[in-house]
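Table S2 (continued). Query chain:
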Amino acid sequence: QVQLAESGGGLVQPGGSRRFPCAASGSVLSIYIMGWYRQAPGKQRELVATITRDGRIAYADSVKGRFTIPRDNAKNTESLQMNSLKPEDTAVYYCHADGVDSFAYSTTRGPYWGQGTQVTVSS
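Corresponding output:
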């Protein structure tokens, strides 16, 4: 199967920045789409940003111009670079992957989720 590992959450002051990576491991040859979702307390999980293997990117309107999503296809990793953070960015952030090509017959194409990392924006 496929595992997604995130790291790097924590407390950030408003206006600050934070970057955290996500690495896919397991029987992975390539991944079509990777991305980030977040879930704030009392709210549904929502899309933050996605990037396809050929570099097409989509951002939620609320993060456009502040967040970027670099990706390394060769290493099956992605990151979320968050700048100009606001209190409303406080949430658990989840790494996501779908459309997995694998050398293992039993590995499904996805979707896969990381365990989530808490980001709190507060002074």
